[in-house]
Records
---
Amino acid sequence: MCGIVGAIADRDVVPVLIEGLKRLEYRGYDSAGIAVVDGSDIRRVRRTGRVAEMEGAAGSEGFSATLGIGHTRWATHGGVTESNAHPHVSHGVALVHNGIIENHEQQRERLMAMGYAFESQTDTEVIAHLIHHYLQGGDDLLGALQRAVKELHGAYALAVVSRKEPGRMVCARMGCPLLIGLGEGENFVASDVSAILQATRRVIFLEEGDTAEVRRDGVQVFDGDDQPVLREEHLSDVSLSSLELGPYRHFMQKEIHEQPRALGDTMEAIIDAGVFEPTLFGKDAEAVLRGIEGVQILACGTSFYSGSVARYWIEAISGLPCSVEIASEYRYRTAVANPKHLVVTISQSGETLDTMEALKYAKSLGHEHTLSICNVPESAIPRASKLVFYTRAGAEIGVASTKAFTTQLVGLFALAATLAKLNGRLSEEKEAEYIEALRHLPGSVQHALNLEPQIALWSESFTPRHHALFLGRGVHYPIALEGALKLKEISYIHAEAYPAGELKHGPLALVDDAMPVVVIAPNDSLLEKVKSNMQEVRARGGELFVFTDADSNFSESEGVHVIRTPRHVGVLSPIVHTIPVQLLAYHTALARGTDVDKPRNLAKSVTVE
Ligand code: M6R
């Protein structure tokens, strides 16, 4: 979704802003702009479409300055137009904003009554006018920002410059991430560290309610009471190479192929220890996890599906009851809390608003025991949680989540095993067996990746279709859901997933020779049931595409296509069976010529409702 970058330096910051915005493109956006302080003037360029178009306009207009801010916008309030693109300007004050201002209508009426004219339909423009209003009253830029944000309801990350104060930029954060990058004689702000990695790795994460003043020679942060406060400096470990495509055609393809490495990194501490330790989830985790009587998982999208796999594992392995719910639903229903349950939020980005709000709601209901499974260190959701398991997938750029999903599953499997151990339900033999299964996992995933040429051939059958069904049973049903989500989001083919046993209760009516049916059918205890369900499809002319593993006794026949992973990997089978459905979606999208990494209408980080 929206992205922010800002810079103050002794050199021209326009290339820094443009490069930063390009690094933020993966988040999804529909327009881009920059504003710079040039002498005693604000100069601004905005364009709908790609950053490159805005860059061209800035180049031809000769933009150059030592202080500036930039933004990629994903439209919420007001259409995709140049006048709605950020930065917004009010009488020499320019501002970029991520988030949503809920009371913007009241503020707009009030400011219009004061004589302010609006040129956009955005919620953001009120903030620019509010800051100008307080500047008129005698405040300096920082004071005006601090006053203005106290009148806002909603979520914001803001970076602001003024033509009257060319020596600083000011910023504020509430509900949306914002960080300050520390350079030598130059400093930066950004909503995501990838935007400033070209210049520095040293970062300060702003906390909720913070404001800050950023000058060339220093930074001062203020807390929600406007008192100076020290925030710790961190060294980002996001590597620039994770933001480069390398030999791959798309980030999604790269990220699918990175999974053996990502899984290996994520499980490194488990494999090194050779046992499941509560400390995997934080140094004080044992005290929390030992008393847990159940688990409530909250997440969205692909992360919800990893939670859905985890429900099978947690109940079967640890014996604890486990519920999993879509965060945007949980946050708005009257839930009954059991404070002895562990609330687990799962989020690749760590900043999904629905998941964050669901976590806050759970806490307000009395849930004290919270664990975040997350891929982005220091992001909002882990910071708001008592315990954390960081997946080590590395930056995930493709909008379609791939390596984040499989690494989340490793964290969740470790949670199931750890809870089982603390409950006296994990024998030493079983623990050793699970560790061994993990140890072999990257190799098994690599075998599944080697099936790519066969899967690419299959994709030719999907490319002309309008619909597809995905079936699975038990712990593989969420993999069918994930396969359907991947296919629909990047190829735009309508895809639905069902537990195979549910087919006869309705969806079977959809099956005819135009409906390809993908079946996840590993050689587990439900295989014979799945085979019966497949007969039901075949009898109605449906064409079957079966992903299975060794010894499952499937043979190819007319209308039944089979791809086999080399061996059954037992309890971790859902992870291995994820790879073929990712590859099928990728190759189908490739053949259909869609924008694989930035599918239409979607954003990488969903920071709005
Ligand atoms: O960052 P999160 O894991 O919280 O994101 C949740 C969903 O928005 C995300 O998984 C989305 O469904 C992906 N586009 C799926 O590929």
---
Amino acid sequence: MKNRMSELVTLLNRYAHEYYTKDTPSVSDSEYDQLYRELVSLEEKYPNDILPDSPTHRVGGKVLDGFEKYQHQYPLYSLQDAFSRAELEAFDERVRKEFPEAIYLCELKIDGLSISLSYENGILVAGATRGDGSIGENITENLKRVKDIPLTLPQPLTMTVRGECYMPKASFDEVNRFRQENGEAEFANPRNAAAGTLRQLDTAVVAKRNLSTFLYQEASPTTEVSQESVLKKLSKLGFAVNDNRVLASSIDQVWNFIEKISQERNKLPYEIDGIVIKVNSLAAQEELGFTVKAPKWAIAYKFPAEEKEAKLLSVDWTVGRTGVVTPTANLTPVQLAGTTVSRATLHNVDYIKEKDIRKDDTVIVYKAGDIIPAVLRVVETKRVSEEKLAVPKYCPSCESELLHFEDEVALRCINPLCPAQIREGLIHFASRDAMNITGLGPAVVEKLFSQGLVSDVAGIYRLQVEELLQLENFKEKSANKLYNAIQASRENSAERLLFGLGIRHVGSKASRILLEHFHDIPTLAKADLDTIASIDGLGLVIATSLHSYFEQEGTQTLLAELQEAGVNLAYLGEKVAADAILSGKTVVLTGKLETLTRTQAREKLLRLGANVASSVSKKTDLVIAGADAGSKLAKAQELGIEIQNEEWLEQL
Ligand code: AMP
Ligand code: ZN
């Protein structure tokens, strides 16, 4: 078995490398899964033989107590900066005094954080942050969850390599969207997000967040002769190495590369903040040596910040789900970070006052990463009018008076019947981390709402296919699809519903904790304030908010309506693993069950990963039949579908 295990580990590591680092997978996902599962089951049977480089180390959570200090064997350096061509020319002069023929290697300066990886006999034994350059933090467990870092090398080498760990723009957007929906503070930029992720004590979070790396240095003594040959070697060893680099024999050539990358920068799937220029010859590097903190043989050219001037045309005020009214500036269009920007956020009413933004002002807009553009400040010298910006007194949606609470920076509409709030609430309800109803995005919600087909979340479940067919662009197929997605969402575990209700301060994490504790929403609704407040991870703010929500008239009616529509109000336990026994299988229950109630049977099936359907069709994989089963059983027999009884289900 040991042999098979080692064979599987080798294969899976190779496939993972092809997939994550080279982007050229040679097997299908399902083949990979199958081999992976075989390995998992062998490892369960023979835990003593688990190999140190098994890919199973990459997943699954461990909660760490903290990070230990890590003494770097070879110190990490920082880089001298340059902000202009003149500074690069000065650098070039210093280098050429000693090496008139110097050649440079220009690399992208990846905006992440430095990491150091140590391998012993080809096995990853330690990974650390830079810290102060000589002492960092040992984050080995977290770095093992970064999928493009090789756990083993193809040769039994003992070496230390350095590079940058970063969060791709797409992952960054996703993480922030999730945080925003949960009412958590968003990360300001991908670098903060990567740093925050690597300092997570829960390794499962790291595994989920899709960090990547680019390695660019062999810190331990090397036999290579140039920076370029080091990069080639690292790439051969299976490390992710950035291909976007160029050799240059003059600052002219360096500058060409800088200009080219400045143009293309926004199309890169990751953030960079400059170009690093390194003397290519390692012998010359050694000769040139170091200043107190940085090598004399390298310099980092930093891009200027992406800022532009634009003229403020007008301000839109929009009402969000919680009644907060947010100002957005309409601007004369400007090119910024690769896109045309004509709208930028003004954050909130207090921001406008603080920055003293006035009518027709010229303002500076900026965009950090793929974040929505924002107004940074006013160019006062270009002010044309002293007139202050008008701040609305009344809600732009329902016209009720807006409030500006003392402890808040925002304006708020507190009318619970405000159409804009209801519409935004519906969008939130259907969104991915809430009820996850595919096809029920903002545009469709807007139509359903404005045509009066849906006015509250329970109304979503009363929708009929015929009504959906009235919507613009809806055909039989799309209407059925949406209808089915709505029906399927009734089976969600109730933390999604609780989150979807959009109760202030109750994010998806709090929703889960609440339901783990109270099991279903009706029980939670009856819980007293102190009990809720005392639960680990919650507190008085959440408890108070929940309490007032459940006390509102209307809440009980809404819950009753949801229940009547067949929406599940109970917690169904841990999220089912992708490899649960009935994962992806469609199962139908029929007949009278003896020991389990229908609901219990259904919950058990859901926990095992099944989709529970109400009628038998060709798509059904399995029918569980109790006593006196009738037409569904007959149909299953006719279609040759697998049929099992209650006892079988209980034994699973
Ligand atoms: P700074 O933090 O501005 O002093 O810049 C130095 C940092 O740039 C290093 O610690 C690395 O983390 C980072 N860096 C990103 N890309 C590269 C690269 N290609 N070569 C060297 N350093 C890089
Ligand atoms: Zn309103």
